[in-house]
Design brief:
The protein has about 375 residues and is an alpha+beta fold. Helices cover about 50% and strands about 15% of the residues. The strands form three sheets. Strands 6-8-9-11-10 form a five-stranded mixed beta sheet. The chain has a four-stranded mixed beta sheet with strand order 2-1-3-4, with helices on both faces. Strands 5-7 form a two-stranded antiparallel sheet.
Length: about 375
């Protein structure tokens, strides 16, 4: 018994903007035909190679006639012209087809099952990629926090060593200052460890930011007076010059995170500035919405083509491959400042040295 069923068509497209125009043209053409002559299904094969492979689609856009048999394919930019040229023959093949309802259902169901299975494969692939991205991001966060643990641990060790070796020469005031410094650094290390554990437990790794109203002038001065940083400055006979106005507006930021960024920038400045060199930390009220803080060194500078790349995870200039560190300090700074809706960048205004700038939102 002949089957009185419409043409079964599948239109394969990709994610190019022109594909939407092709879909529109084919649908408009079918609307000019008598009703119930054809059924059209549109499939975007982007990221679904299994589906394209099953239907032997090697070029998009492609229009397949899967019923009635035999299967026919037209493809390419002139798809609409080809469809119009093939349409009369396709209708004729439908009228002459002597298949049964069972054969039709078998063909259509098989194609529908393949499409369904391929959609599921695509969904699972996307889910796998998403989970891999989460794991990769979590690894980066843990690496960044572990990297920054080195500073407070070194500072505590230095304070204890100073007390142990020079206890007979230290005044009670200096001993108390060293102990306060040690306690402060231990609290910072403890917070970082907590954040690492939270990142490991969380379903989605994030960099914790707890913004509040802070006095950025005081924060800058606290970092500039850090015992460990000043020890390193003295060790290299370097001079730190600060220009931090006391009347800067309060900013909305995470106190410890901002200190982490400034300490990182000063740490880098000390590392790359030669013995006896000069380092500057300045701040100004750049706009009504932003405060800008800058750290300038007299080191070798950053080549113009590398000034964006150095803020990427684990990117290091070739000249620095043998230097201490993991190449993630500036990436940490970049992530923290971006989390504050601020900006971080570097320029080299003089023939020598680099100026790193950050902006923070005014409270």
């Amino acid at each position: 018994m002949p089957v009185n069923s419409p043409l079964q068509l599948i239109l394969f497209i990709d994610d190019r903007p022109s594909s939407l125009e092709i879909v529109k043209e084919v649908e408009q053409f079918l609307q000019t035909c008598p009703p119930d002559v054809a059924e059209l299904q549109v499939i975007d094969v982007t990221g679904q190679p299994y589906l394209a492979e099953h239907f032997r689609v090697v070029l998009t856009p492609a229009l397949l006639k899967i019923y009635p048999a035999p299967r026919q394919t037209i493809a390419g930019k002139s798809l609409l012209v080809q469809l119009k040229n093939s349409w009369e023959g396709w209708q004729q093949s439908l009228e002459n087809f002597s298949g049964t309802d069972q054969e039709l259902n078998k063909q259509v169901n098989r194609s529908a099952e393949v499409i369904k299975m391929t959609d599921e494969v695509f969904r699972l692939t996307q889910e796998k990629n998403h989970l891999q991205q989460q794991l990769h991001f979590k690894d980066r966060i843990i690496g960044m926090l572990a990297h920054d643990l080195r500073n407070p641990i070194t500072a505590v060790s230095l304070a204890l060593e100073t007390i142990e070796l020079s206890q007979d020469k230290l005044t009670p005031e200096l001993v108390e200052q060293l102990l306060q410094q040690g306690r402060k650094q231990i609290r910072m290390a403890d917070n970082m460890i907590t954040e690492i554990l939270e990142s490991c437990r969380g379903e989605v790794a994030t960099l914790p930011i707890r913004p509040q109203r802070i006095n950025i002038s005081e924060v800058c001065q606290q970092v500039a007076q850090d015992y460990y940083l000043n020890y390193r400055l003295k060790e290299k006979q370097q001079h730190l010059i600060t220009d931090i106005p006391k009347d800067l507006p309060y900013v909305y930021a995470d106190n410890e995170r901002v200190q982490q960024v400034l300490a990182n920038l000063l740490d880098n400045a000390i590392k790359y500035t030669p013995i006896g060199g000069k380092i500057q930390m300045t701040a100004l009220h750049r706009t009504s919405q932003k405060v800008e803080i800058s750290v300038t060194d007299t080191g070798p500078g950053i080549p113009p083509e590398m000034r964006e790349k150095i803020f990427e995870e684990k990117y290091r200039l070739s000249r620095d491959k043998q230097k201490e560190g993991y190449g993630i300090g500036l990436a940490v700074c970049n992530r923290i400042i971006r989390a504050h809706y601020g900006k971080i960048w570097v320029d080299c205004p003089h023939k020598q040295g680099s100026s790193f700038h950050i902006t923070l939102p005014v409270f």
